[in-house]
Design brief:
By secondary structure, the protein is mostly helical. The protein has one domain. The protein contains five helices and no strands. It has helices spanning 8-41, 43-50, 55-76, 81-105, 112-135. α1 packs across α2 (43-50) and α1 packs antiparallel against α3 (55-76). The protein is elongated.
Length: 149
């Protein structure tokens, strides 16, 4: 049986894109951990500087920061599970964003920058999930389960 091989140029572009996605997720994860950690562990002054913190959003984002780093490392290591983790992160982030909407609609205190940050996070992980789907799509002529990764 013969398989159609992807052109070397297309393969290099796919690899460069995978690296870009992985590094972006790593940077996003580290910055999330640093900013969330500062508010969580930086004392009363850091908490006051953050304004009207929505605790469940802060806790989710901080915890998800570890998963962001893991997803980025998985993408860099060519691990297909990074695609599944990106999908999970996208879905969970959208759900937390919806819960933030309910919190706001019911009169809860919030910062507009939290809405902006959740918009960015949702778009980032939806984009990651869509892009990694293309990265891990088997080349034409190769069966989907024939790869080990």
């Amino acid at each position: 049986m013969t398989t159609l091989a992807a052109s070397p140029g297309a393969s290099r572009r796919r690899e460069a894109f995978r690296w870009t996605l992985g590094l972006a997720a790593l940077v996003f994860g580290v910055t999330t951990l640093l900013s969330g950690g500062k508010v969580l562990f930086g004392g009363a002054e850091a908490r006051a500087d953050a304004g009207a913190v929505v605790d469940f959003v802060l806790l989710f984002n901080f915890g998800a920061g570890f998963a962001y780093v893991l997803a980025g490392g998985g993408a860099l290591a060519r691990r297909r599970w990074s695609l599944h983790l990106a999908r999970l992160l996208a879905g969970a982030t959208v759900l937390i964003f919806a819960a933030l909407g309910v919190h706001i609609a019911s009169g809860g205190a919030f910062e507009i920058r939290t809405v902006a940050a959740m918009t960015l996070r949702s778009l980032f992980w939806l984009g990651q999930a869509l892009a990694l789907t293309q990265i891990f799509k088997p080349p034409a002529g190769v069966l989907p389960n024939s790869e080990e990764k």
